[in-house]
Design goal:
Elements (H helix, E strand, L loop, with lengths): L2 E4 L76 E7 L2 E8 L10 E7 L6 H5 L23 E6 L2 E2 L5 E2 L6 H16 L2 E11 L1 H12 L6 E5 L18 E6 L7 H14 L5 E3 L6 E6 L7 E7 L26 H10 L2
Parallel strand pairs: 1-11, 4-5, 4-8, 8-9, 9-10, 10-13
Antiparallel strand pairs: 2-3, 3-5, 6-7, 12-13
Length: 343
């Protein structure tokens, strides 16, 4: 039985809502995500993927390099250049974008963040935002502004699903296997910190990050998700190993509703051994965040209410970058980045 609601942290925040949902091509607002039980067959989606200029940065104190676990690529001359790459996985060619620091040093083990797009999204929508639905408004879910050239970003392209759309249905672990292949390629060629590999995503991309958190906790240090659900071929019963977990969710999300979001954080807080609780509701036009207590690993949840996506108002709280009233920058990227950089 859940313990009494605990006091949440946070300040007022307006919420916005953008989406990755099934049934509309990128550039059209989507209103309904494909049901979790569906395992759409995929042909490959290969939209134009531009290679944007390096993101702006702000200062960040890097983790102690002595605590790093260097990959096989450390000390080697790299062959993987920044930009788009294709590799074979599951009998088909899959694509992803790689972005390394401008001053990449093959003796420095770098943090790696995998970034999965929403349905109807694409690599280009993450690295050159905004897309037509304005699902994110800064490069790399806003992390590009925060990394200080200390992070490698990997942005995979999902496959087409019936609808149309493009995302992460992950039938028979297809997209997990693709992620394994990308990680193998990067680990063998680049100098990364094997102990600091992270996954993040919004909506369908959040579902994919949940799948990796559940079935690849040995490879990923933590998962950071926005408006998630168990929609990428993995069930909550498969989540049995503790893994640090950060989630944000709009209370009026009409695509993956707030109850769905609570079931996700309940799953991971239980796996992480946290004291059971029900997060307090946020203030109207505000957000609140709470770190769970008693956990074996950090577990944090944020919720928000009040302001919908001004570009696709029907999506309300289904949005990865809600903003405090009167603010032009979202509070979510700094919250999520702070969670990642504690490791």
């Amino acid at each position: 039985m859940p313990a009494p609601e605990s006091a949440a942290e946070g300040s007022g925040a307006a919420m916005e809502s953008g989406t990755p949902v099934a049934g509309v091509p990128e550039g059209e607002p989507a209103t309904q995500l494909a049901p979790p039980a569906a395992e759409p067959n995929g042909g490959e989606s290969n939209p134009s993927m531009l290679d944007p200029a390096p993101p702006t940065t702000v200062m960040e104190t890097p983790p102690d390099p002595s605590a790093a676990v260097p990959s096989a690529g450390c000390g080697k001359a790299r062959s993987l250049a920044d930009g788009n790459h294709t590799l074979a996985s599951g009998g088909m060619n899959r694509t992803y974008l790689l972005r390394t620091p401008a001053d990449y040093d093959n003796t420095h083990p770098y943090r790696v963040v995998f970034m999965f797009h929403w349905n109807y999204g694409s690599v280009n929508a993450i690295v050159n935002p905004p897309d037509a639905d304005h699902n994110t408004d800064r490069p790399f879910y806003g992390f590009g502004d925060l990394t200080d050239n200390k992070t490698i970003f990997v942005v995979p392209q999902g496959l087409a699903i019936p609808g149309p759309g493009a995302g992460w249905a992950n039938p028979n672990n297809r997209d997990v296997d693709f992620t394994d292949a990308m990680l193998d390629a990067i680990t063998s060629d680049l100098c990364i910190d094997n102990s600091r590999v992270f996954t993040t995503g919004f909506s369908f991309g959040a579902g994919m990050s949940i799948a990796l958190a559940c079935v690849r906790p040995d490879k990923f240090r933590a998962a950071v998700v926005y408006e998630p659900g168990f929609i990428s071929g993995v069930t909550s019963a498969q989540c049995t190993t503790a893994i640090p977990f950060f989630q944000s969710h709009g209370v009026d999300d009409p695509v993956l509703n707030y109850k769905t979001g609570l079931s996700v954080i309940d799953t991971f807080s239980a796996v992480n051994g946290c004291t059971a609780m029900t997060p307090a509701m946020p203030p109207q036009n505000g957000h609140s965040c709470v770190s769970y207590e008693g956990c074996s690993v950090p577990t944090r949840f944020c919720n928000f209410s009040g302001e919908g996506n001004p570009f696709t108002t029907s999506l309300q709280g289904h949005y990865p970058v809600p903003k405090d009233p009167g603010q032009t920058a979202s509070w979510v990227p700094p919250e999520a980045w702070s969670f990642i950089t504690q490791f």
